[in-house]
Structures are given as structure tokens and as C-alpha cells.
Design brief:
nine-stranded parallel sheet; binds zinc ion; alpha/beta; globular; binds beta-D-galactopyranose; Immunoglobulin-like; ten-stranded mixed sheet; Rossmann fold; 26 strands; 17 helices; TIM Barrel; single chain
Length: 657
Amino acid sequence: MRMGMDYYPEHWDRSMWEEDAKLMQDTGVSLIRVAEFAWSRLEPTEGNYDFEWLDDAIDTFARHGIKVVIGTPTCTPPNWLVKKYPDVLPIDAQLHPHYPGVRGHRCFNSPSMRHYSFLIVEKLALHYKDHSAVIGWQIDNEFGLHECNCEHCNTKFRDWLKDKYSSVENINAAWGNVVWSGEYSEWSEITTPLGGNRAKNPSYLLDYKRFETDSVVEFQQLQLDILKKHCPNHFVTHNIWSYPMSLDYYKLGEKLDFVSLDYYPSTSPEKDVTSGYSGALTLDLTRGIKRQNFWIMETISGPPGCWMPMWRTPYPGFIRAYSWQCIARGADTIVHFRWRSAPSGGEQFWHGLIDHSNVPGRRYEEYRGLCDEVNRLAPLLEGTQVKGKVAILHSHDQYNAFQGQLQSDGMDYFENIKTLHRAFTKLGIMTDVLSENEDLTGYKLIVAPSLFLLDTALASKFDEYVKNGATLVVLPRTGVKNPNNVCWIQPLPGPLSESAGVTVAEYDPIGKDKNSINWNNKSYSCSQWCDILTPQGAEPVARYEDDFYAGKIAATVHTVDKGKVYYLGTFPEESFYSDFFKDVADTLGLTYIPNLPEGVQVSIRSNGEKQYMFLLNLSRKQQTIQLEQSYYSVLNNKDIAQELNMNPYDVEIVELL
Ligand code: GAL
Ligand code: ZN
């Protein structure tokens, strides 16, 4: 477990490196990430590699006990490269190249991009494979999907489709191309989406997204193979951007040693409490990619800006508390972005820890304290992991399918996951947020938000979990389509109807209008969607209170062997989830913390022998928590009372016996 800094030696005069390294060492920093945008310095002209400056920088930091992660610079192809080999540039929907200036100007399928990336990554790998300070690699920077319509992408897309469907006739059948005369008679008629108007065939659009992910994964693999070949003792990771995301992070993460996350919680006072909850979800999602601990490769250390008017400066305690939140949810190393604000370039005002003044200030002092704490507790926390009690399912495919076809005004797949996750976090119940393709054996409670695309294979997997004792919670828009994004011709929830013991007689996409449901003699408002249910063996548990379907069934429960399936036919307000999950937790014997104050989060890291409970007040208010007993805080080396008062952004870590 290390504390690290993103450092750009190429932004500073060499005379500053030594001073920076010394101050970092004094501060407790033991790692830097370098070079992920430095291609023009590493290869100033074609084939002229210059690593002397990087050697010098790495050696300077190594002399201060600081280890190094090298970022491969392929997110920023230099000007000589794009000028000489224009196929490097992605082509937008208007068939214009995306010019350099802002990073990310590379087509993942461009032969020149792949060739020159291969060369520079190989040179770097061979050069640094035995350097004692270099411990690992970050490939590229924050991959994402950026539609490219170049000829190479067109050819590769057709090849991808040939692989999947063999013939255009099969595509016509699988996508239902008969509608609007969309049938293809030969491969050359198939192109990239050129902007991908949402009214285009959804099956085509979804397959294109999958193709884009595969292109990124292939591009990454090219680098991964070189790095693994020459540097077998180094780890290889990638720093993902946040969620929601079209790029399939599960596929991206498959071959990496671990995943890293760039985490920028909002500093806005209005988002004071919500950003902690969305952050908790982001961290749980990241841990779920490989079902293991992860790194934070960038996180906030000053007011962000440049891409938007500057955000508020992190409130006292914010930098520290949010770093602990990452560790509390499975991060094993925290790298802050960045040591000092950039003197020039597009991100001058995305502030680093130290301002342009170059005078370490309040944020630096807070960070220094954090380094002391993390370094002191690292031996205790090393090897501990986070294990959730509840599984919430997430899928980039489902997200992309919903993004392509908005279901009702305000219905948002990812926002709904946030609400569900927040309800659990507020109850102090840790969740693992996992791909629907994972093995979920062992979870007593599985929450499956809107399995829009659902085939019988996946449905029978859920059926098995339920028969073996799991409780499954299903939400509206489940079982609507097959994985090709074509509607099932059968009553909803399609392949899950039998396990759920219910069918949807009619639905009302009410969007931002409101209805309400009655559950356990209490009324809860609901919106987005209303399924009117007909039980087929299930018991009604909630009814609508309004509109022409007042009194009709809104939710059911079906007992199947040892387990149960709840079908919620609408999206109720958050307090419903809170009451409902408490009720389900009581039945399943899952413990929760009633009355956890807003903004306070609790989680546990354990290693089988020891358990550490993290208590975080991620809010600007003082909060009081009722604990089961008094504890000793290993973080602050003091006893803490059963009735614990927490100041804004306070953190406590206690060892559970
Ligand atoms: C990240 C990116 C960094 C930096 C940071 C602040 O998304 O990886 O290079 O740009 O955001 O904007
Ligand atoms: Zn392309």
C-alpha cells in the first residue's frame, strides 16, 4: 500500500526535480506515475528515441526511495506522427479527422497507430525492464469509445461481423433488417454508424458498441503482450475513467493485473452528500471489475477546472476523507493528481496539490498528514479485502442498450443503480457491484436492475441461484429483448416470467409523472415506469394507488424452492428501497445499521483473521453515530465512544474483535 503522485518531469525545469523528489520523500510519497503523455519527448522525431531525460528523472526520484509506474504515451500521438501517417487520426461522423491538440486523437484500428505504438512501447519496455525503481506500467490513459469512421474501422467492423454472423443473411435475420428496408445484400453495404442516429436499428448500434470495445481491448492487448514479454516482473494496469461508461470495463480489465480508477468526487457544497454515495458506487463497481482490490491512479488534490468553470476547492478534510473512502472500499494504493498545477497547456487550472505559487499550503499539509496515516496503517491493511453481502448487477451492454433507446422521460439505468446502491450504503450494508455474467453463488440477496437484454441461459442461471436459496429482486424493463437487442414475442418479463411467477398485463411509461404504491400499509411515490402485473403463482405485495390502474398489482413475490423472486413493477422513491431492503435483510438475517446519518459510510476490510471497520463522515456537517459498543480507533489512536460524534470529514478505523 503506497501513497503516490502523478508527476510530469517534462513540465518542469530539471533543476526542480531534485527538490520535488526530496519534498515528496519527506511527505511520505513512495511512488510516482510518469510519462503517459510524453511521446513528443520520448520520440521527438520518427525513430529517434530519447529516454535520457526520463532516466534522469526516474533516477532522481529513485534516490529518494520513490518507485515509478510508467504510462505508455499512446493517448497523445505527436505531431510528426499524425502528419506523416494521417491514418492515425480518427474520422468523425462528418468524415473530418479529429486533429491533435486535445489528447485522444488516435484510431484504435489504424495500422500506423498500432505500428508506432508497438515500437515505442517495446523500446520503453526493453529500456526499463531491469530498472530497480520501475515496478509497473499503465497502458495509455482513460480509454473510451470515440466513434471512428475511417476505412480501417469500416473493414475491421465488417470482419468482426463476419466472425460473429458468417453471412449477411444471418445479420439480416439477427438484427431484423427487414424493417425500413434495412437488409444488406453484400458486406460492403455495411458501414460504421456515421454518428449513429438513435433511430437506427438498435441491434446494429449495440453490435457496433461491442465492436468498439473489442477494438480498444485489442489495441490494449498489443501493448500488454509486449510489456508482459519483456517485463515479466512488472504489473500492467490501465486507469479507467468513471461511470457510466459505454466501453465495457469488464472486457478491458480481463487481462490486466489489476484495474486502476481515476476518481474525482465533486467538491460542490450542494453535492456534499450525494457525491460520497455516487463515489461509493464507483468504487464498488471498480472493485467488481476483477472482483479484487484496485488502485486509484488519479484523485483530487485541488480545485478542478479548465474543462468547465473551476469547481470549489476541496473543503478541509475532503482530500483525506475521500482517500480513506477509496481504501475503505478496496483501493490498495492512492495516487493523487497531480504534484503541482501545470504551468502551461489545456489543464493549467486543474489544480495539483501545490499551486502555481510553488508554496505548499493547506491542502499539502492535509495530504502530508494523510501520507503519515496511510503509511502507518499500511502493514495492518495490506492483504485485507472487501466482501459485500449483497450483489447488485451492472452491465455495459444493458447501459448501451438503454442509452440507444430511452424508455421513458427520466428513466435512467445508471441513475437507478445509484439509487439502489445508495439505499444499501445508507443502511451500512456493503454491496458488490458485479457484472451479470459473474458467478453469484453465495449471495443471499441479488438485486438485478432492469435486465433489458436477457436470454434463457442467463435467466436459468438466476433461476438456479433462487432455487438454491437466493432472493432475487427484479425491476421493470427486464426480459424485454434478446442479446441481439430484438424484442421477445412473449409476455414480460420474458425468460424470467416463470421464476418471477408473474407477467406484465400492461405498462405505462409515466416518466416524470407520479403515481404511488402501497406497500406494508405505507404509501411511496413512484415514477419512470409502471408495470401492471398479473400474478402467475406469485403473491401481490404492493398495489398502485392512483390513475386508471389504482388497486392493481405493482409488486409481487414468488417463492421458488429455497429462494424468492421479488418483481418490482415500478421505480419507487428511495425511502421505499430503504424500508424494503431492511425488511428483506431481516428475513435473510443480514445485519444493517439503522439510522446511519446522511453522509456517513461504514465498510469493512478483512483478511479472514482481522477485520477493520472504516467509519467516514463524508459531509460538511457534524454527525453522531450510534455504534454497537465503544471501540479503539487505530487511525487516531484513541478510544471512541459508543455514541460517536464525527466532525465534518472525520474518519475512524477500528479493529473488530
Ligand atoms: C483525467 C486525466 C488526467 C487529467 C485529469 C484532470 O481524466 O487522466 O490526465 O486530465 O483527468 O482533468
Ligand atoms: Zn478508425
